[in-house]
Amino acid sequence: MTDLSEYRALFLEELDEQLQYIEEEVLRLEHEGATDTAVDRLFRAAHTLKGSSAAMGYHKMKEVTHQLEHLLHQVRNGERTVTKPLINLMFTGLDVMKGLQAEIVRTDAETSDISPLLQQLQQFSMNAASESVIPDPPNAFSGGTKEELPGDAGQPPAQRAVYPETKSKSQTIRVNIERLDHLMNLAGELVIDQTRIQQVNTLFRQRFGSDDLVEELFQLSDHLSLLIGELQDGVMKARMLPIEQLYNRFPRMIRDLAESLGKQVDLILQGKDTELDRTLIEEIGDPLIHLLRNAVDHGIEAPEQRRLSGKSERGTVTLSAAHQDNHVVISIRDDGAGIDADKLRGSAVSKGLLSQTEARRLSDEEALQLIFKPGFSTASAVSDVSGRGVGMDIVRNNIERMSGMIDVETVKGQGTLFRIRLPLTLAIVTGLLVNISGRVFIIPMSSVAEITRIEAKEITRLRGEPVIKIRQQVIPVVWLHDHFQYPRPPVRRYLPMVIIGRGEKRAALAVDELMGNQEIVIKSLGSFIGKIGGISGATILGSGNVALILDVESVVKLSGHAQANSSI
User: Fold this and answer.
1) 388 close to 378: Cβ distance less than 8 angstroms
2) Model-level pTM?
3) I need a surface site. Which of 55, 58, 165, 423 has the fewest CB within 10 A?
4) 446, 552 in Cβ contact below 8 A?
């Protein structure tokens, strides 16, 4: 008996791709109607999956795809039209196939009972399609036989050949992600060594002047720096994936959610080719799902409510991604009811988070930030879909853990926009080196808004906490010395300040000295040391010394109590 275990991994990869492809095509069929090319694409995908499942001995998967293929065959031959019940039945079959896929991955066996689905598919194929018909676009075929292919003349429909689409294929290979991670680690080590070589070269020049050997070392170091930079860039690009791979899971989710809520929602996806590190693509998925579900559940109004407001009955949710500097900006926009700032203030007071006086002092922008407080919600009832605000603190924490930021904008009655800003990668980043009590710390540049020097007398107190004023904005001051329990430096006229954050959420980190920027390789502290408040990792400097990387958000949160009791 042939051993098929060596082909199992390849089959599972193909299965995952084909199921995703089928889902996309069914969604396209629902929106665009039954064009002959759309049905042909679906038929070919089901036929391919049926053959590979049979070859691997997964008979339940083969049988489900066979029945779906038969329904599509009826559509291709004009024996039935594409209706809403047909689309829903195909989605049901797809869900069962995904369940079988999960069983094959876990146990290499199909254990689900698929007989109810097979009976439903067979019964449906025998009955005439009498349900409401999805209108066909021009040139679609809703009756008669189908654009005959060469050699098909005179052939019965069942015997006609299926010709694959002719399209160019990119020359690619599949690589285990662990191999890419290993290459990334090696590239990181080379970055560290290259930085050390540069520092040695600088010391040689200081000691020996413009010696011939020193100049040769300089040229070698310069060339090595160029090659390592290109190698690093190449490895990072190899780890990058188009965000389309993340987008693919959302159309079906929005479609099902809108139907369950009785709403009409169009999902617009923009920037599918925008590339992001595969680790970030995995991590950002859950926050995006939460934001999209909230947009449909509590952002988009019911059709009758939208009609009374003078809007189209169909709401729109737009998910877009684009590169901006060395970051990726992901936006989730809906054209729904927006977020009511007064309602947020009232909810905060009723929950005891703010007094009436404090709530009245908040600007609309400040009130909007209340949705990120733990457990905060304005939902009048708990639904299967979390209310706008429930879990938003988790969303923000997850994004900040990726060295990202999230902002929100809203216009009452017109909609809401959530904007997420992420670094391209978390493996090698640019860091700002700062001196704190003779020790070097690193602040990720993705968290730095600006760098400035202020006079000590400009530090004042607001509600007992030190603050500075920059361009009409009051920013709290955080002394990193206090957080790490280091002695503060002697009083000086001017103090270096690193402003972190964006928009209303900013803080000024007081440091002793700014030491410049440097590409750093982030290293985990390991389980032996564990998690330390205010520290996200470590790196190795050109001197060979270890420097700790600051988790600036954590520093600000943990320093809040110390600030109130410290003097300037």
Assistant:
1) yes
2) 0.63
3) 165
4) no
